[in-house]
Amino acid sequence: MANREAGEAPVFQVRIASTGEALEVPRHKSILHVLVENGYRVPSSCSDGRCGTCKVRYLSGEPDHRDSVLEPEERSQFLTVCVSRAKSEELVLDLPAPGAAIGPRDPFALDRPIAVVDAEICVACLNCVRACTFHAARIDPDLTGVGGIQGAAAIDMDECTGCGLCAAACPTGAIAMTKFTDGEVASQVDGLLTPSHSSTPHIIAFACPNALPAVRAYPGGERPSACDLEIVDMPCTGRVDNLHIMRAFEDGADGVVVAGCEPGCCLFNAGNTNAEKRVRWIRAWLDEVGLGSGRACMVHVPQDGADQFANAADAFAEEVRALGSSPLRAGGARSAATGSPAEARPVERG
Ligand code: SF4
Ligand code: SF4
Question: Residue 350: which pLDDT band, with cuts at 50, 70 and 90?
Fold first, then answer.
C-alpha cells in the first residue's frame, strides 16, 4: 500500500515507461502537476476529473480513481491524472519522453492555438464541421468515436486558425484548444470574482481582441463607472462557451457581457454571430433558473468604439442593477444553477 498517515492523501510514485524515470507524487500535488513540472506533456482541461482530457494509460499499479468521467471498463487501462491517485506504491504510466511528439505532429508544440479532438468522446455530430469556416474540421471515417462508432472528427492542423468556434460548438467536450483552454478561461473567471456585498453590479466582460481596447477604456475620461467591470481575454467571441458564461454566474457575477466586433468584421468570419446566438441561449437559461435574462448581453463594438461600448455598458449595468445582486453572489453557490432548457448541453463538463 502507498505510504499514508492518518487522514492524509498517500505519497506514491509514478514511473514513466518510456524513460524509466520515477517521480514522487507528494500529498499536496496532483500526478498531472508532477508530470508537467518534469516536462511531460499531458493535455488537460477541467482539472477536476470531469472532462477526461488528461486520461493516461497505466501499465501496472492500482489507481485510486477519483474522476467522474471514465467508464468502468476504461478504468482498467486509464486514469485521469488531474485528480486520481494511487492505492499502490507505484503506477507505471505509458507516456512519451519529455519533448517527444505526441503522434506524427504535436499540436501542443505549436506556438499558436489549435483545436485537438479526443475521438473517444466524439459522437460525430458534425457541429464542429458546421462551425468551422476554414474547413479545418471534418469527420474521418477511419477514426473510432464514442462507444466504438465508425468515424470521428479530425482537425487539419495546417488550416486550423485556433479560433475555437468548434470547441464552443462541441456538445461533448471532445474538442480542446491548445491555448485558451477551458481550464485557463475558468481560471481567469475564478480569479476575478470574490464574494462581495457591494451594491455596485459586478460584471464580467468576455472580450475579443478587436473589442478589447474599448472594453479596457471603460468608463473613460471623467465619466463615473456604473459597474465593476472585469475582463476575460478571449481569442474570439466565438470561443466563448456557454459553460464559460455559466461559470461566471456560478462564481457570483451579477451580469455578463460578451463584447465582440461588429457583424461582418469577425476575423474568424462567424465568431461574433455564433456568440450572439449563444448569448440568446444563455438569456433563456437565466430565465429558466430564475436569475433573469437581463443579466447577459452581447455588445458589438465598432472600431474605435470606446464611447459606444461605455454607453452600452452603462445601460446594461442599469438593467442589472434593477435585477439586484445575483443570489449566487454570496459565495459557495457553484453548481446551484444547473437548470437548462430542453436543448441544453449538460452543465457539468470540464
Ligand atoms: S479552431 Fe477554428 S479553424 Fe480550427 S478547427 Fe476549430 S473552428 Fe476550425
Ligand atoms: S462537435 Fe464534438 S462531438 Fe461533434 S463531431 Fe465535432 S468533435 Fe465530435
Answer: very low
